[in-house]
Amino acid sequence: MATTSHEHGHNPALQHHFDTPEQQREAATLGMWAFLTTEIMLFGGIFMAYAVYRWAYHEVWALAATHLNTPLAAINTVVLLVSSLTVALGVHAAASGKQRQVVLLLLVTILLGAAFLGIKVTEYSEKFAHCAGYANPITWISGGATLEEAECLVPGQQFHFPVGHGAEEASSLPNIQRNAQLFYLLYFCATGLHAIHMIVGISIMAVLAWMAARGRFSSEYYTPVEIGGLYWHLIDIIWVFLFPLFYLV
Amino acid sequence: MSTSAIPQNYTSTRADSATEWIKSWLLTVDHKRIAILYLLSINFFFLLGGLAASLVRVELVTPQGDLMTADMYNRMFTLHGVIMVFFFLIPAIPAVMGNFLVPLMIGARDLAFPRLNLLSWYLYMGGGVFALVAAITGGVDTGWTFYTPFSSSYSNSNVILTMSGAFIMGFSSILTGLNFIVTIHKMRAPGMTWFRLPLFIWANYATSLIQILATPVLGIALLLVMVERVWRVGIFDPALGGDPLLFQHLFWFYSHPAVYIMILPAMGVISELISAFSRKRIFGYEFIAFSSIAIAVLGFLVWGHHMFVSSQSVYSGLVFSFITMLVAIPSAIKVFNWTATLYKGSISYRTPMLYALGFIGLFIIGGLTGIFLGVVAVDIHVTDTYFVVAHFHYVMVGGTIMAYLGGIHYWWPKMTGRMYNEAWGAISALVVFVGFNMTFFPQFVMGYLGMPRRYHVYPEEFQIYHVLSTAGASILGLGFIIPIIYLTLSLFVGKVAGPNPWAATGLEWSIASPPPTHNFDQTPVVTEEAYAYPEDAAAQDSDSWQAGSHL
Ligand code: HEM
Ligand SMILES: [Cu+2]
Questions:
Q1: Statement: residue B64 has pLDDT above 80
Q2: For a designed S-S bond to B91, which of B57, B95, B239, B306 qualifies (C-beta 3.0 to 4.6 A apart)?
Q3: Burial profile B344-381: b = 16 or more Cβ within 10 angstroms, e = fewer
Q4: pLDDT band at B366, cuts 50/70/90?
Q5: Residue B4: its pLDDT value, please?
Q6: Which protein residue has the closest C-alpha to ligand 1 atom 42?
Q7: Which InterPro entries match (chain A) (predicted)?
Q8: What are the residues facing B496 on neighbouring strands?
Q9: Which residues contact residue A215 at a Cβ distance below 8 angstroms, ignoring those fewer than 6 apart?
Q10: CATH number where A196 lies
């Protein structure tokens, strides 16, 4: 006598506690959406802090933002947006069962993600190089050009926000060092947390690419690609908010 | 292939060696086994938190600080608060009873994400280890509220370790909530419509919404405090340009909803108990269901009532005060509906019912004093006094723990297949009720008279209340120990319960006790409402009553 709960034994991707693949897919997707809500609330705390201090110290913060490397960040924004496109195409390819294309598109996504992180590291190390007195990370290692005007935008004992050339009104702002430091602290926290999510995202993409290469997906079953894609889009969207808030405003 | 010859249940083992047996528990993905893992670990933390509370109460017997130094005292009540809030009250009912019952009640074979469920338990334990290590290596002295700038700049105790513990445990809570939401949406058996769900499910659903929306905000707030402590940059310390109120806002944005994470599942348990032991359909099903959702939603809008004296603007204080009054409405709706369910029911005073009735009484006191506190003018008088301490213990101990104990007794036969000793059950329920009131009622009085919270020395005039309170706490402690003894004994000597010892409705009672690993041999098809007790249950019961039947 076969029990009803085991008659679906033929589909290896279907876990035993689900009745139909459809149910399993919907559950996974809803789970991912719920998780993304959680992520938004997590970053929400940082955005809240941003709003409070932007309001309190808007002049200093506007000034502080000018010392970020906006061109690099702009490139990064483009890189991420393109990666969102490749992920979306990857999901589409998975839906139409084109396995090789899926692998390819996911690998491109990983590359773009890595490029983003590389650029981010460059930005960070530039700030650290300035603290060490060098103009950029390369001269820091090879011992080249030093910085003309002392600047250290990494929060900590050494923090020094330059108020030199012609910015009389800047130096008259109360507690400019302290408040600029707060800006950079939040900058590092927000972009750092985002970078951690990028690393997780890249790992997910790597696993998905590997699974796709092993032929685990088909046009009937590609839920992991789909929800992995959702996660990737979320990371992108968060960056789309971080970029203008820190670099542009 | 049929293996129906030997009755297997989720506790029976197929392992032939001890290591395999241990593995079969520690690596299980069965929601019922995970519930048992939680039961054991959560009760362990409860005893630990209780130990800290006992030491606090013993210190307070005399007005001088003779048992501990002031510093030690601070660490002790913080240990108590952190353990009880983060490692007992928040996970207790969802992680133990929710885990066990959500799939059973909706007719599913497991939660939607069984492995994630196991991960939640490991995260819980991981967070617990952090908290324990922090406690053993010196403890924390900030209070469970971790207020800045004390926690971020001035305290020299194990703040970071403890916060990491709470942070990690938070993710356990988030994942449990996520799992429940998806399970309740997607895994219901055919015919199990939303309005046929047991109210316990509605309550857990509302709780889960809070868990996934509020917990990450606490996570980020704790993370920022840790960053501030490490880098000494003022996010929250006003001396460094930070804003301590921002911390309080972020903290209470989680921690007020968190009190509903504690009470909503408890209310769900009470709805089940009241209906089962009145043998009557619950009165106003839809109202109870929607009041859970209303509480979850409104609960997000009242956090400012913890900050009336914090220099938050008086206008926002007034708005928060007003919305706080609104939250009391859905809470009251539930109490009225439970009472109406009792009316003309066939009430039997079994142990779970004693806890349920106790809950209603204590929750009324706790809730009404919450309204006192929600009035700005009254709150300014009693904030940071024992009045607040009494209020929240009435809702958290009188509410959540009463429901937890009631639920454990009610579903004990389902979980273990055995009945506990009913006489001892009733005795301990009464001991808990008496001990509880004796512990916490004097605290309302002394708080109103001006006894501040979190002090280990106090003026002599308050001693009488403290002595009463400590005496009550000893009785209460006894009331928690007795059930541990007879419940454990019942595993060996308890009467075999059978599938449905309470003659209750609900899918969980339609299968064997303890349930088989896959819960349902055949996916059940639901054709009636929840709590479909016969209309004339009371008449039937009184006709068939004879001497020796249960009350
Ligand atoms: C009927 C609804 C309730 C109302 C109107 C209410 C109102 C309040 C108010 C205004 C305070 C702030 C007092 C002060 O700090 O000066 C407070 C504190 C508190 N309430 Fe409630 N409350 C309610 C229900 C609950 C429930 C159900 C729980 C928990 C299960 C709870 C747990 C707490 C805790 C833990 C605190 C103190 C937190 C602390 O400062 O350590 N309350 N309540
Ligand atoms: Cu509150």
A1: yes
A2: B95
A3: ebbbbebbbbbbbbbbbebbbbbbebbbbbbebebbee
A4: very high
A5: 41
A6: B392
A7: Cyt_c/ubiquinol_Oxase_su3, Cyt_c_oxidase-like_su3, Cyt_c_oxidase_su3-like_sf, Cyt_c_oxidase_su3_a-hlx
A8: B418
A9: A99
A10: 1.20.120.80
Tell which of A6, A17, A29 to mutate to test the B interface (max B CBs under 10 Å): A17
- pLDDT at res. B3: 42
ipTM comes to 0.91
Task: Please report the atom of ligand 1 found closest to the CA of residue B145.
Answer: 41
* Residues B402-409, mean pLDDT to the nearest whole number: 98
For B165-185, what is the mean pLDDT? 97
Q: Closest approach of chain A CAs to the CA of B245, in angstroms?
A: 10
At B13 the pLDDT is 76
Q: How far is B169 from chain A (nearest CA, A)?
A: 15
Q: Residue B222's closest CA among B191, B195, B254?
A: B254
Q: Is B241 near chain A, with CB under 8 Å?
A: yes
Q: What is the dihedral of CA B392, B398, B401, B402, to 10 degrees?
A: -160
Torsion of CA B296, B300, B302, B308, to 10 degrees: 140
- Ligand 1 pocket test: which of B303, B307, B373 has the largest number of ligand atoms within 8 Å of its C-beta? B373
Residues of chain A with pLDDT under 50: 1-9
Q: Across residues B69-94, what is the average pLDDT? A: 96
Total number of domains in chain A = 1
Q: Ligand 1 in contact with B263 (CB < 6 A)?
A: yes
Hey, is the C-beta of A36 within 8 angstroms of any chain B C-beta? no
Apex B267 CA angle, B375 and B214, nearest 5: 65
Residue A16 lies in a domain: no
CB burial readout B434-453, b (16+ within 10 A) else e:
ebbbbbbbbbbbbbbeebeb
* CB proximity list for B164: less than 8 A, separation 6 or greater: B127, B130, B226
Whose CA is closest to atom 37 on ligand 1? B392
Given CB atoms, is B215 within the 8 Å cutoff of chain A?
yes
Residue range of the domain that includes A121: 28-248
pLDDT value at position A3? 39
**Cβ(B396) to ligand 1 under 6 A?**
yes
**CA distance linking residue B231 with residue B237, whole number of Å:** 12
Q: Tell me what percent of the residues of chain B surpass a pLDDT of 70.
A: 98
Q: Do B212 and A5 touch (CB under 8 A)?
A: no
Q: What average pLDDT does the segment B407-434 reach? A: 96
- Residue B61 contacts by C-beta under 8 Å, 6 or more apart in sequence? B466, B467, B470
What per-residue confidence (pLDDT) applies to A164? Answer: 65
Residue B232 sits at the chain A interface (C-beta within 8 Å): yes
Spell out the domains of chain B, with CATH numbers in brackets. Answer: 33-540 (1.20.210.10)
Instruction: Grade residue B8 by pLDDT with cuts at 50, 70 and 90.
Output: confident
Overall average pLDDT of the B474-501 stretch? 96
Q: Which ligand is nearest to the CA of B145?
A: 1
Residues in chain A with CB shorter than 8 Å from the CB of B153 are none
Average pLDDT over residues B32-60: 97
For residue A4, being part of any structural domain is answered with: no
* Ramachandran quadrant class, A81 (left: phi over 0; alpha: psi -120 to 50; beta: rest): alpha
Supply the pLDDT for residue A167. Answer: 57
Q: Give the B window 245-304 contacts with A, CB below 8 Å.
A: 246, 249-250
Q: Is B323 near ligand 1, meaning CB less than 6 Å away?
A: no
- Selecting from B108, B110, B522 the residue whose C-beta is nearest the C-beta of A4 gives B522
B322-361 pLDDT, tens digit each: 999 999 999 999 999 999 999 988 899 999 999 999 999 9
Q: How far is the CA of B259 from the centre of ligand 1 (A)?
A: 7
In a domain, A17, yes or no: no
For B128, phi and psi rounded to 5 degrees?
Answer: -60, -40
Asked, for residue A236, whether it belongs to a domain, the answer is yes
Whole-number pLDDT of residue B549: 63
C-alpha dist (Å) from residue B195 to B204, B223, B286, B287: 15, 40, 8, 11
